[in-house]
Amino acid sequence: IVLSGGDDRLWKTWGFPDGNILLTGEGHTDWLSGCCFRPSGTQLVTSSGDTTVRIWDLSRRGCILTLRGHSRAVRGCSWHSCGDFVASASMDGTSKIWDVNSERCRYTLRGHEDSVNSIEFLPFSSTVLTSSADKTLSLWDVRTVSRL
User: Fold this and answer.
1) Which of 63, 70, 93, 123 is deepest in the core (most CB within 10 A)?
2) CATH of the domain at 140
């Protein structure tokens, strides 16, 4: 199964090798910039130009949580390997670490001087990598909310 999101505001899962569309999700009000599966595979996260991050349950075929807190478009998202945290990167110059269980922002990472364009958790760690339009990469320890 492959996951995609696009300017049409939709995410889709595709079966391979046939290339059939298995599921389609709608709910964002602007383009999708990122999407990825939860490590368990039962949910997915999407990020959008509408400033939100959404969690989707594949068995319910719908959005189960909308995370709000960025003031500009969200450029990327990532699940932590444990499945309890989601990271988001935004054009507002911040990144956020969201606690999916408590449904709130746990940390806001500040330090880039321009749009944060991507974010990834390093596998099985508390370290996040961000890239920015300010032409820098940063490694963050999300336990202390500091750059490494």
Assistant:
1) 70
2) 2.130.10.10
